[in-house]
Amino acid sequence: MSLTWLPAALLEDPSVARALGHARAGADGVQVAAVPGARAAVLAAVVAADPERVALLVTATAREADEVAATLRALLGADAVATFPAWETLPHERLSPRSDTVGRRLAVLRRLAHPDPDDPAYGPLRVVVAPVRAVLQPFAAGLGELAPVAARVGEERPLDDLVHALAGAAYLRTDLVERRGEFAVRGGIIDVFPPTEEHPVRVELFGDTVEEVRWFKVADQRSLEVAEHGLWAPPCRELLLTDGVRARAEQLALQLPGAADLLHKMAQGIAVEGMESLAPVLVDQMVTLLDVLPAGAIVAIDEPERLRARAHDLVATSAEFLEASWSNAAAGNVTPIDLRAILGRGSYWSLREVRQHALELALPWWDLTSFVPDLELAAEGDGPSVVIAGEEVPAFRGDTEAAVAAVKEYVAAGLHTVLVTEGAGLAARVVEVLRDHDVAARVSTSAAEPGVVTATTGSLGRGFVIPGAGLAVLTEADLTGGTGATTRDMRRMPSRRRGQIDPLQLRPGDLVVHEQHGVGRFVEMVQRTVAGATREYLVVEYAPSKRGQPADRLYVPTDQLDQVTKYVGGEAPTLNKLGGSDWQQTKARARKHVRQIAADLIKLYSARMATRGHAFAPDTPWQRELEDAFAYIETPDQLTTIEEVKADMEREVPMDRLVCGDVGYGKTEIAVRAAFKAVQDGKQVAVLVPTTLLVQQHQQTFSERYAGFPVVVRALSRFQSDKEARAVLDGLADGTVDVVIGTHRLLQPGVRFKDLGLVVVDEEQRFGVEHKEALKALRTAVDVLAMSATPIPRTLEMAITGIREMSTLATPPEERHPVLTVVGPYDERQITAAIRRELMREGQVFFVHNKVSTIERVAARLRELVPEARIATAHGKMGEHRLEQVVLDFWERRFDVLVSTTIVETGLDISNANTLILERADQLGLSQLHQLRGRVGRGRERAYAYFLYPPEKPMTETAHDRLATIASNTDLGAGMAVAMKDLEIRGAGNLLGGEQSGHIEGVGFDLYVRLVGEAVAAFRGEGESEPLEIKVELPVDAHLPHDYVPGERLRLEMYRKLAAVPDESGLVAIREELQDRYGEPPLPAQVLLEVARLRTVARAAGVADISAQGSFVRFGPVELRESQQLRLQRLYPGSVVKPALRTVLVPAPRTARVGGQPLRDGAILDWATGVLRHVLLDPVSAA
């Protein structure tokens, strides 16, 4: 960001200089009129001119606050500006604001009260940007005095002090840090996720000294680079439970019976959800943001007219929600927290009160507006007015010629012309284009000069021209016409992932499948010491072998955890008996059936493998430029998937990959990059989508991403006239169209491609078999990339078994929060309040009513309840053209509320719609509920989903289960969890077609999938039909000590990784991970790694049993040739070979031949590895 010279340049304009004069004189009521793009820049100029000056800029919405803050950071430096966010909850709701919101708020207050002069990231602030909601809501006094928990390398910080400080700052202690506001302690390592950071921090102590502070990734818990400024963790709650607060909570419990349950817990020192809403009556004093500003700070109001309306709506809606919550409470729901009786006022101040307060504090109040005042008619008492003469830059919307002509005009007029783009790629491209048109241009970070256009990177909203300062600033939004993405906070890119952490979460009572013994019930994890050696075991309970007897128990050593999987299948399967034949029969039946499936699948696979496709070239510089210009942070999964797709395209075999990812997880970006790669090789790309609306959305996305590259993107849909469609078809035939996006119209016989290279199928589950057959007919040797959020069973089956490659996106994108899901009875007041709250945020609402006959009546009722809302209806009985027009209008924000049937369930991507109201939630299936909820929560605002049911009608058991599931699985990416739960509720019958269901219920989903995979491998002639169960019973002390890896779930996860490790490189990776996450492994953990190494050697040698037997060690099954037997006797005299039992007994090693002690731990493992290597694996013996 290199625009810090711009504020000083603006002061050349006399009117801006006059505004600075008013600021220095401390004038109140100053009115500054300027074009929209220039308002933030003028404020930056006034602030930058005086090093001590601080300003508060108030905007109407949180989104505007973030955008303006990004602009100011570009002008004043990244560390000089901070956003003070508002709570995303209303003051009376029993919900706590998110910890990252609180952390950001407290960090700002701390920097205002006690800036750190040594660290610019936490040093003095120049501008605080806040939405009006944050300014109107008072907060507890003294929050700026709360010291963050800080630790830097070299400081003395005893571990206990750090832990107490974090607990006191309301951080939650867990065994694995996954969310903001959590911390974990393991030995001398503390992991903390401060709410203000985008990665958690790992603090390593040596004694009481802080030795190292590094970032680490949540996905795989591995360290990233060193965190330069150490740990800086502000508190996660705005109400800390001090002794005074606890005593007051105890007294108040009698006055507020509705909140007595919260208050009693708080009195005991327990932090509870929603306790912040009680702050006004629990703390001594509440203050506003104005009270914490330094003396003489400017309070600038951006667009006062909009702000007044927004402030009024906020107060009214809050009161309305409170009323709705009371009526809900009467219906049996929780009571809201209503403090009006005690405080005598509402939770929000009015704007007039805030203005009055600013006068009392002698803070100058400025209005920044687009409306030019009449200076001659200014009344006596009005403040001074400043009009900054300037004009807006026209929106060129991708019209290169018009943009170049405008730039030439500015340069000819002697203006310093600056072009600001988000990514470096576009800046370089713009300079190239200008030079091609004989305009002097350069990419530079220094100040602009007349006669030369300067291109630079930064984040400015709209451009502006101020002749008085000799400045013309054009931005990316002016050039492309798009408003740009809203989450353009480019942060550290996540490094490539090394393996997702997925702790095997087993709770006592969970059903598990052991590959050799069948379905059992997990009981616990225990440590046992046998012959002086300590090991950990999983205890699994099976059906009793005799009726009336206690259940049999199986102790599974943790190094055999690869044999155990969690059971997913039918409702409640019968437990198998240990040693019984029922499990073998079940498995044999499943295996027989699986062979039939595998044979069919192999035909498809071998046909594809035999085809020769086009091998695409490696990435070009343009490809990298396109990828650099991506405005979001790629998630680790996205990066992996993109690499996999590109690798597939570069192979000769045609690609057939399925990308599974929950709604909004960035599947489209993968398609954008793959399509671009294909076009670079001169191939055409067809993108197939199910609805016309998606055609338009994708066309906009692709065109925006390809802006500035010579790629021709065209759409083919019913929204076009025949003439337009014909032009597109001709372009496809003669090769002038590179990318075509269309519905199944693309599959009609008349469509001809010149050189098709890639087909992308979006929302694959919506296309039938005949569509896919038509696709194959287009070209057999074409690469296919399919994308889906909820894959259909057959697709899932083919992907799972490796016939098609599959990539899964499981990480939610940054800045996305779980949807707040409310399940409750239908109540008009709540609906009214929910719609109003959304309108207040300038958002949109989906209202789902599933009966076409009454939908207009419902819409009319909503118009009565919320007259100011613009409401439209959409349902499947409308003409298709009309329906798509309505949805398109909704997408373009011409309506606020869309009342529709469940047709909105698939593939609508409307990031501005953040409230979903579902009228009869009891009548819909689970996947429908999940898909519908996926329509909201795609932006940065907190999303709400209301699942309502009629209070007067009884609900079925299944409906109740579904609603309970959807209410509990609110996290992003819960798609797979919901799909598995759906499997449980409906039984596995329809997962992979009728006849498989019994087999899946018998063996469990995971094992079934493994069986299919093995059968496919056997048909291909690859590998073993079944993995060996390797048993190592030697006197070794091999386990993960509890003080080294605390928490059963983390130990299980590590044991599972060790059990499944395939080779030496895998072991090295696990050792690195242990070292990184838990510190230097103690001796028992090192021995455990050696056991895993021995298992890899045994697997290579085909040995399944290595155990101590008296004074011998038994190895089996082994079949030795004569030369190997001779070698065995020579190297290990006294060995006994038992060919009938296929075992070898080797004398157990001792420290000395006579009177020596038996070897233990690492030494005996090294010896056993040596036996296998020297006797069974030696290449000489195989010769």
Describe the structure.
The protein is an alpha/beta fold. It is built from 38 helices and 46 strands. The strands form 9 sheets. A 7-stranded parallel sheet has the order 3-4-2-15-16-1-17, with helices on both faces. The chain has a 7-stranded parallel sheet with strand order 31-32-30-33-34-29-35, sandwiched between helices. Helix 17 crosses helix 31 (996-1003). The radius of gyration is 34 Å and the shape is globular. The chain starts with 5 loop residues before the first helix and ends with a helix.
Features of this protein?
38 helices, 1183 residues, seven-stranded parallel sheet, 38% helix, globular, alpha/beta
Question: How would you sum up this structure in a few lines?
Answer:
By secondary structure, the chain is an alpha/beta fold. The protein is built from 38 helices and 46 strands.
Rg estimate, integer Å: 34 Å
- Low-confidence spans: 483-503, 983-997
Contiguous helical run count: 38
Label the overall shape: globular
The tally of strands reads 46
The largest sheet is: 7 strands, parallel
**Helix share of residues?**
25-40%
If you average the pLDDT, what whole number results? 81
Give the quaternary arrangement of the chains. single chain
> What separation lies between the terminal Cα atoms?
67 Å
Strand content: 15-25%
Q: Give the structural class.
A: alpha/beta
Which sequence of strands runs across the widest sheet?
Answer: 3-4-2-15-16-1-17
